[in-house]
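Can you make up a polypeptide sequence alongside its tokenized fold?
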Amino acid sequence: MAQFIRSMTNRFVLRVAVCLGLLVVLTSTPDVSADQAAKPISFENDVVPVLTKAGCNTGSCHAKAGGGQKGFQLSMLGFEPREDYEALVKEAHGRRLFPAIPERSLVLKKACGETPHGGGIRLAKNSEGYSLLHRWIESGTPYGSGNEPKLQTIEVQPERGLVQRHGQQQLTAIARYSDGSERDVTELALYESNDEAMADVSESGLVQVEEIPGKVAIMVRYQGKVAVFTAAVPLGAPVENLPEPSNFVDEHVFANLKQIGVPPSAVCDDSTFLRRVTLDIAGRLPTPEETTEFLASTAADKRDQVIDHLLRSPEYADFFAGKWAPLLKNRRDDAADITSNFAFHAWIRDSLLANVPYDQMVRELLAATGTIIGNPPVAWYKRVTDPKEQLEDIAQLFLGVRMQCAQCHHHPFERWSQDDYYSFAAFFSRIGRKPTATRGEDLIFHDRGLATATNVKTGEKLTPAALGDDVGEIAPDEDPRLRLADWMSSSGNPYFAKALVNRYWKHFFKIGLIEPEDDIRDTNPPTNPELLAALEAHFIASGFDLKDLIKVITQSKTYQLSAQPNEHNLADRQNYSRFYPRRLQAEVLLDSVDDLTGSPTSFANLPPGTRAIALPDNSYNNSSAFLQVFGRPNSQSVCECERVESSSLAQSLHLLNSNEMKSKLAAGNGRAAQLAASQEPLEDRIRGLYLLAFSREPRPEELQTAVAYLNEPVLDAAGNPMNPAQSTRENFQDLIWALLNAKEFLFNH
């Protein structure tokens, strides 16, 4: 009846307009076939996909948070079709639709550009989408009978394939429904490449592969369902004389390199390996003595011995605690935080040094109760107080799942809904707090009661559920966080171990098997799924042994490949055919500069000799221009992207001519002064510098150049030669300055 009244009203308006002479030109109705005209139209199954394909319900258009555009609000990507129907048909007295003359409907006039539209032309008049919307409006804008089949899955054909460089692959998207029917939705599906430098994809699903070899994925999305097409793009070069695999890591990497025809670089030399692995595990440069001993050793397993030695060292715990503390937001917001910051950092460091199983560490953090002094992991709940922030941080950090979007709408690239979001939040709904005698400190406890969280949109109270997995009924006197910890460490968990091994793989290889490392989803597949699965299985089988995982990675020939590219693998960015050089982290670089200049940096409230990698929290960034310029994180986010590892002009200028660098080079008891006063042969002093900076002896031409420079007299301001001792000292300062500004020093390679 409502549809009939609305139709009659529009016809009356039309007659009035004709009588007044206001309606001069009528656009003809688009031609449609008899089959199309006879087919009933479903708003959810037919209209919403057209709006989605046209981009009407994206976050930058009418699905924008806070009211959409120009007062017209749609749900993100059409995940709430009933709401979209109400907004389109009933809001503003139905002004957007004109069933009597559909082509005069505002929604069509704006979409085709007849009326000014901020989004531009979204539907051509001769398009299938325009025709369908026209027929829907003409038929009285029905929602549907209520018996329409529901979309079950979306399938892309083919699912994977081998596509030559500069080649093409047409994709076909098939929607499968609850009644067993299927529909070709290739023209209505949305497509997105996960690496546009490797492959682009048209709106109709035509994949155009570019020059770079490797694996590339195309996401296909339709009505909230997603599928992925994965293409292997071969280079086709012969892959021969591969190194003998050290473990399963090499087997999977080399198998992939054979498939795509990318030969790896040679295994690096001993000097390069020692410097690389010491920086990656201990966060420091090898000492000249360590380098000399290692290079002189003839033991067949000397590389494995070095790895074991580094994993037993306190520097390993310091360095990796510096990796985890910012991610766990060990942040000092005021002076009263110092005790909790130190205690939390010490717990992380001591756990790593003792090689506490990773799942146990996470359990101790998740289920922490008591006070910070008695149980330091409680400090995390001091920093992260909102249950929403707690669930988002835990999901992203330990599961590699980004849940933030699902708070307001269905995740656009994943399966997570608002119910999934609030069901996960329910695990943190029974955390109680009581003030203690210590200012700013709370006692954290399990507040007995039924764990629930309310979906703010539907008002429904939801019990704990772990990303679609049922964890069973949780009694009121049971801490739901313990049930979450059980689920996370279970062997069948598809995220927990995978997220960790991917994060650690990126630490050692610069690029994760999944990028970003904390964005694990069906639509973001790994570049080497077999390798990722093998690492995950090994990590679980080892009892979540972090040191064992590091050994497996660093003992592999893949990790030990040279950074020097061959004629075939220069463009490789994801197949690990060579080592990818990366700039030293802020703390590691500062310690390395201190070691080379012989002038350590002092930090407030810490013992003399404390290294930058051992700093417990973010507060020391404020007092160190070096750490600020080189991007030490401020512990505001669980994303490793907070750590800046890109180069900048400010960094170059700081190393070249900052007062801090000048002071370190000219320190009275610094390395330049010591070397100038030393009685050792000049060549030996130069060798010592090169061993410290680069873990290698100087090349003959480098040694010759350095000796000649150090023997040059230095003139004072009046143009007179300085005394030999002062001249030698200034020349050593210049030599050290040149070494610490070399790329070989600034990068781990």
In short: Confidence is low (pLDDT under 50) at residues 1-36. The CA atoms of residues 328 and 380 lie 7 Å apart. The longest strand covers residues 214-222. The domain at 151-233 is CATH 2.60.40.10 (Immunoglobulin-like).
